[in-house]
Amino acid sequence: MDDQEMQLKVRRVSDKFTESMYVLANEPSVALYRLQEHVRRSLPELVQHKTDMQSWEEQSQGAIYTVEYACSAMKSMTNSGVYFKNIDSLLRQAISMKDQISNSQGRSPLVSAPHAPSSSS
């Protein structure tokens, strides 16, 4: 065998070997193994992110409820202005009536106490 023939055979063998290694490296089971490795490495971090997000969602829901409750309380307070004006008017009338009663009692003679029922029935 001469040198060129030997180089040709070596080249064929090395090409076949390279092709076999390429096929072996890209075989589906190897790809699945690499995928499994990736999932195994990244899953704990993803789980932690999920629990963090759930915690933040719960806190957000609590804050949203608080804000909505405060808004409804503020709306109720703004709508209660009519009632406070009515209460103010009634209090002023009550004070006026009390003053009238006090003035009328001050001018007239003392009213005698009511008579107790007699025991001869």
UniProtKB/TrEMBL annotation:
Protein location: Lysosome membrane
Keywords, ordered alphabetically: Lysosome, Membrane
Main location: membrane
Pfam family, one: BORCS8
Region (Disordered) location: 101-121
Segments forming a coiled coil: none
Superkingdom, taxonomy of origin: Eukaryota
GO cellular component term, pick one: lysosomal membrane
Claim: Membrane is one of the keywords in the record: yes
InterPro entries: BORCS8
PANTHER family: BLOC-1-RELATED COMPLEX SUBUNIT 8 (PTHR21146:SF0), MEF2B PROTEIN (PTHR21146)
Entry's family note: Belongs to the BORCS8 family.
Protein's UniProt name: BLOC-1 related complex subunit 8
Organism this protein belongs to: Nothobranchius furzeri (Turquoise killifish)
Gene it is expressed from: BORCS8
